[in-house]
Design brief:
By secondary structure, this protein is mainly alpha-helical. The protein has four domains: 4-59, no CATH class; 67-161, no CATH class; 174-319, Intergrase catalytic core (hpI Integrase, Chain A, Orthogonal Bundle); 334-361, no CATH class. Helix content is 53%, strand content 7%. The chain contains 17 helices and six strands. Strands 1-2-3 form a three-stranded antiparallel β-sheet, covered by helices on one side. Strands 4-5-6 form a three-stranded antiparallel β-sheet, with no helix packed on it. A hairpin with an 8-residue loop joins strand 5 (219-222) and strand 6 (231-234). Helix 8 packs across helix 12, helix 13 crosses helix 15 and helix 14 (300-307) crosses helix 15 (312-319). The chain is globular, with a radius of gyration of 29 Å. The relative contact order is 0.07. The model is unreliable at 341-357 and 359-365 (pLDDT under 50).
């Protein structure tokens, strides 16, 4: 079957076998313009003839694709765009086939020498792998898999930069939130309450417009984030009342055009309240996770579902922060030693309870 193009949705696709090529293809051409689609099909046929004539010496797709061209094939978001703009000057000219995992792992130190290994992974390794693996899915190159940085590599880089990464975050609490809201402007105050009680990220909060609200039903549409689609989320009656009396500003419910406009006023509100500075993400999403699972004892499965975590493990590993001191742990051991926590018999150890049970069976008391 010779190559033919056909429409699927608003994109043109190609299927069939090019003359001289045994490989059957059925893939998107990535365009809604029929003339561009036809040009791409002619290019498929040209390359098939090259392979038929030259055999193993014919250029393969991965031999021709450079990283800058692979980026153009990738549907990115503003955050990954910013990361890729820093990467392209270093490897944009390289053929994708020449970009090896070791090169990617050590590119972080060239671009961000004073950053943590987590930053290298997030801003260098992940975007590069996403671009190359997207091109692989389009049949343009081989996939890439880059080994994670080890704990020892993280420690060594922290020593070089003189700063410890992965420091424990202080989560928000009702007490902290109350003090913060007493000194924050109405928009910032409502935003803090919203993030703490829904687990929303600051990027989601600033995107909310009046069209997202359904206050009569005590709910709103939470914007998408971290791979999760937009979805309806129920909100507390206290927050409903505040939002009902909060006039939109700049077309946004919380009045801020982007998250970058929040941090400075957030710091000033903390200073006026005389409380520890807790950044929005820690006060909100970390506060939500800790409040529910640690302080209120909500089961992690339910908390993860309402906080839109993909699994309870992520919630417990990252967002639920232990608050008891070592003194409380020592106190628990002392209670256990004294037998106060034993359940089989009040004030009796498990071993003694078992002995008494056997004694009753033999008729003795």
């Amino acid at each position: 079957m010779p190559l033919e193009h056909y429409k699927r949705g608003n994109k043109w696709w190609v299927r069939g076998r090019a003359d001289g090529d045994n490989e059957y293809i059925n893939r998107s051409l990535g365009t809604s313009d029929e003339e561009i689609a036809k040009a791409k099909i002619r290019d498929f046929e040209r390359k098939a003839r090259q392979r038929a004539i030259l055999g193993d010496d014919a250029p393969r797709p991965e031999d021709e694709l450079d990283f800058a061209s692979a980026v153009k094939l990738y549907r990115s978001n503003p955050a990954s765009d910013a990361f890729l703009l820093k990467v392209i000057p270093f490897i944009g000219h390289l053929k994708v086939k020449d970009i090896k995992p070791k090169l990617v792992r050590y590119l972080g130190v060239r671009i961000y020498p004073g950053a943590a290994t987590d930053t290298w992974r997030r801003q260098v390794v992940t975007p590069i792998c996403a671009v190359i693996n997207n091109a692989h899915e389009l049949g343009k190159c081989q996939p890439i898999r880059v080994r994670a940085y080890t704990a020892q590599e993280r420690i060594e880089q922290d020593k070089r930069r003189g700063k410890v990464s992965r420091q424990a975050k202080t989560p928000g609490s009702w007490e902290w939130l109350s003090a913060f809201r007493s000194e924050a402007n109405p928009y910032l105050s409502a935003m803090a309450l919203f993030m703490f009680t829904t687990g929303a990220r600051i990027g989601q909060a600033v995107e909310i417009t009046p069209d997202h609200l359904d206050l009569q039903s005590h709910r709103l549409i939470m914007p998408p984030a971290k791979g999760h689609q937009a979805q309806w989320v129920e909100i507390m009656a206290e927050l409903v009342a505040e939002l009902a009396n909060l006039p939109p500003r700049n077309g946004k419910v919380f009045g801020y055009a982007s998250r970058h406009g929040v941090y400075e006023v957030w710091k000033k509100a903390c200073a006026r309240a005389g409380i520890e500075y807790i950044p929005p993400h820690a006060a909100g999403r970390h506060g939500f996770g800790t409040e529910l699972t640690v302080r209120q004892g909500i089961d992690p499965v339910t908390a993860a579902k309402h906080g839109r975590w993909s699994s309870p493990r992520i919630l417990l590993d990252t967002y639920a922060h232990a608050e008891d001191s070592s003194a409380s742990i020592h106190d628990a051991f002392r209670r256990g030693k004294m037998g106060k926590s034993a359940k089989p018999e009040q004030g009796v150890s498990n071993c003694t309870a078992k002995q008494m049970k056997n004694k009753r069976k033999s008729g003795g008391e």
